[in-house]
Amino acid sequence: MKLKYVLYMAAALSLTGCNDSFLERGPQNLNDQSFWVSVDDLKAYANVFYGLIPGGVSVLDDTDSDIQVPNNINSFLWGQYVVPTEGGVWQKSSWQNIRNINYFMTHYQSVQAAEADVNIYVAEMRFFRALEYFNKIQLLGDVPWLEVDLNVDSEELYGPKMKRNQVFQKIIEDLDFAIQWLPEAGSEEANRLNKDIARHVKARFCLNEGTHYKYHDELEYASEAEKWLQMAATESDKLITSGRYEIYNTGHPQEDYFNMYRIDDKSDLKEAVLYVDYKTNIREHNMAAAGREAGCGFSKSFVESFLCSDGLPISLSNKYLGDETMRKETANRDPRLKQLILTNDFPTNVTTNPVKEIGDLKVKHGVLLLCVDIVSGLGGTPIHVDDWHVDFALGGSQKCLSAPANMSFLSVSEEAWKIVEEVNYAGYEALLPFRNVTETGYFPYTPYWQGTAQLHKACELIFEEGLESCIARHEKVAIYCRERIKEMGLKIYPVKGAVCSPTVTAVYVPEHMTWERLDSELRVQGMVVGGNYGKLAGKVFRIGHMGSQANINLIKEAMDILETVVHDI
After folding, report:
1. b/e burial code for range 457-468 (CB count within 10 A of at least 16 → b)
2. Which residues contact 279 (CB under 8 A, 6 or more apart)?
3. Which tens digit of pLDDT belongs to each residue from 314-368?
4. Are 348 and 475 in contact (CB under 8 A)?
5. Using CA atoms, how far apart are residues 147 and 155, in angstroms rounded to an integer?
6. CA 427 to chain centre
7. Residue 271 near residue 9 (C-beta atoms within 8 A)
8. Long-range contacts of 263-269 (CB under 8 A, 24+ apart)
9. What count of Cα atoms within 13 Å lies in the side-chain half-sphere of residue 476?
10. Cβ atoms of 1 and 20 closer than 8 Å
11. Which residues, 6+ apart, have CB-to-CB distance to 72 below 8 Å?
């Protein structure tokens, strides 16, 4: 398994994990007499530092800026942050990476090999040093610049700090060396650094530093701002005009930005300069796409920075509808807005009923039992029976589990078991005989072995895929289904203000045809959808996209059929 890192031109999810391919030999406990012999030794040393490459930002990583509104007072934004003079980020552990990098810089010359072969790994190490020092000046400002590994007797330990702008010049020198000696993009060894990655990082650093100097006159570096901003533009232009990168686009702008971060195989993703390849049980991360509360919200100024669909800012565009409601404020805007921020009309990671809120009300008002039907949702949407205070959750083997419709099962809370024991009902369908089944292994009645085996296999398939991946697959399909339906001019049920299930989409029957005609024509094309009952009979039909049918190719085929039928009749 080889290392691949994501380094997006815009924002990316922050993903962490272990890499099985890192060689065991690193900076510590080296025998200098036997180690610094070959280019392979340099490569082994450099491998350790690939974990320093940033994976982008998570939804919570920008709370130190004015882009988000934190839960608590932010010391940076309120001018209360004080740079420490000792301890904390000044202690030796915080500088260990820089020392280990400089240890390489004072020993690599021992390797007798072609300059180009050696300098590839020198370039990698100087790239990593640039990353470390950029983090230092962002946090501390002026810091000592070190190019050799120190010991307890080194005079540099007590030397002066270097001005921030001078440190940044050193950072750029490191990155320029990396750009000079790293291989061209596409010619590098699989999953290692190349010139484009160094250019990308240089452009980002220059943009940050140039902007910082421009708007912080107190630093007295404003005269340098334009130089760094121009350099950012120059390096970015080299990447843009290379023809190697382009914005991810499948022809569906309303979902592409959202789905880009969920692509399992990113080898063909041209928006990524470098990416991480994750594999179950080999290299994994512990991050999930956040579709609910993130502990803080985006600021209004950030939302207002998104252009309207005509490319104009909200102050100049006739398409801007105002901010009276969220629906108006997010209408006719850059499609990435609704894919970045959860809005009231973007169906991602929601259920048909606010079960959590209902559970909270149950606790608040002392209601004895909360019973929930999870047949259509289990395996396709997050369900947290304990956190939501659900006492009875009834599931079925069909729907999202895609097993035969011959099994049902019930989740019972501890509070519900107490009531069951108090009632002490002894009928054939009673729950009490099942109270200790998991502990004793004794089944009170004749088990349905065939159904149990089918259900077991269905659950195995979900765990093999990963529950989060399974839920994400349902979300993706639901989003695509609803966007296609809107494009057809059809109206989605339910009523305004309600949220949609990621497993079923309900649609009003087109006004120009009857339900019977629609159903008949769809069946001729090989597509079967569900009708409805009661007052909605003949008015609303349902499209199931759950379980094995939560497949983007299947739903695309279904939408093509529906579009043909709706427009041809």
Report:
1. ebeeebeeeeee
2. 1
3. 999 999 999 987 778 888 999 999 888 766 555 433 335 678 888 888 988 888 8
4. yes
5. 13
6. 49
7. yes
8. 264/469, 266/4, 266/6
9. 25
10. yes
11. none
The structure's pTM equals 0.56
d(CA 487, CA 251) in angstroms, rounded, equals 13
Give the span between the Cα atoms of 454 and 374, in whole angstroms: 19
Q: Which two tokens stand for residue 318?
A: 């006739």
Collect all residues with Cβ–Cβ distance below 8 Å to 120 and sequence separation of at least 6.
181, 182, 183
Tokens of 334: 């850059």
Q: How far apart are CA 310 and CA 301, in angstroms?
A: 19
CA distance 478 to 545: 7
**Which tens digits make up the pLDDT trace of 454-484?**
989 989 998 888 887 888 888 889 889 998 9
Predicted confidence (pLDDT) per residue in 193-247, tens digit: 999 999 999 999 999 999 999 999 888 899 999 999 999 999 999 999 999 999 8
Whole-angstrom Cα distance, residue 486 to residue 479?
A: 11
* Of the candidates 290, 287, 288, the residue with the CA atom closest to the CA atom of residue 298: 290
Please, which residues have CB within 8 angstroms of residue 558's CB and are 6 or more apart in sequence? Answer: 481, 527, 543
Provide the 8-state DSSP code for 310: T
> CA nearest 285: which of 54, 468, 16, 4?
16
Identify the three-state secondary structure at position 71: coil
Q: From CA 437, how far away is CA 441, in angstroms rounded?
A: 5
Domains and CATH numbers, the chain: 32-60+76-260 (1.25.40.390), 299-340 (no CATH), 355-465 (3.40.640.10), 467-568 (3.90.1150.10)
Compute how many other C-beta atoms are within 10 angstroms of the C-beta atom of residue 506: 17
Ramachandran bin of 478, using left for φ above 0, alpha for ψ from -120 to 50, beta for the remaining angles: alpha
Short-list 353, 371, 351, 340, CA closest to 503: 351
